[in-house]
Design goal:
By secondary structure, the protein is mainly α. The protein is 84% helix and 0% strand. Helix 1 (5-38) runs antiparallel to helix 2 (46-80).
């Protein structure tokens, strides 16, 4: 018997959520590998390394996009799965926020190195802070009181998702000096003086990248296995 549209809604959203997860984690791994190649100053010329950096930035747009849509898709799953009776207006606001976030990401990318991109990324940062606080509060309150998310595994997922936001924000904070350092590298050429600070910044950033990977794996494991 063919399933009705209502019956299909939840599994279809689960599938969409999984696709976003694959794009997020897979794209991030691609970004990481391109970054690893950029570090090899003895193997590649500076022009080749800058080409790798442009490739890295292009690849990074896809996990960033998936991240923006993860928020409304996760809330939709809570509603369709009967885990949280969110009002329709709240769900619509979540999707509107996700698409605004998506537009900010791509608009900043297309207008990079302009005041417009700076403005967009500032607004995006505010969104991240607000959503991080929201998920951390949702997970913490649900774990301690059993509501609004009753299953402990689901409350733990919300808390860990909030921690992903925190780690991702710290990636942006640690990565901020790269712009001036990279400009100095391009202007003055490759040397220990220009490469050293850049590599140290990348090393600090990688710590939080690994934290994001670990949290993503933990969130997906809890969602699939539901161990508690």
């Amino acid at each position: 018997m063919m399933m009705s549209l209502n019956d299909l809604a939840y599994p279809m959203m689960v599938y969409f959520h999984l696709i976003l997860f694959v794009i997020w984690l897979g794209g991030d791994i691609g970004v990481f590998l391109a970054g690893q190649q950029f570090r090899k100053r003895t193997r590649y010329s500076l022009d080749q390394r800058l080409a790798l950096l442009r490739l890295l930035v292009g690849i990074d747009m896809f996990p960033r996009s998936a991240w923006a849509l993860m928020v409304p898709s996760s809330l939709t799953l809570l509603v369709l799965g009967g885990f949280w009776a969110l009002p329709l207006a709240a769900l619509a606001a979540a999707w509107a926020t996700g698409f605004v976030w998506l537009w900010l990401i791509w608009d900043a990318h297309h207008h990079d190195m302009t005041p417009r991109a700076v403005r967009n990324r500032r607004i995006e940062s505010w969104l991240k802070y607000a959503i991080a606080v929201g998920y951390l509060a949702l997970g913490t309150v649900s774990l301690t009181s059993g509501a609004p998310l009753a299953p402990p595994w689901l409350a733990a997922k919300a808390l860990l998702f909030g921690l992903i936001f925190v780690a991702a924000i710290l990636i942006d904070v640690c990565f901020k000096p790269v712009g001036p350092q990279l400009a100095r590298l391009i202007e003055q050429g490759s040397s220990d003086a220009t490469e050293g600070p850049l590599l140290r910044t990348m090393d600090r950033t990688r710590i939080w990248v690994f934290v994001v990977y670990a949290l993503l794996i933990a969130v997906s494991f809890i969602g699939a296995v539901k161990p508690f």
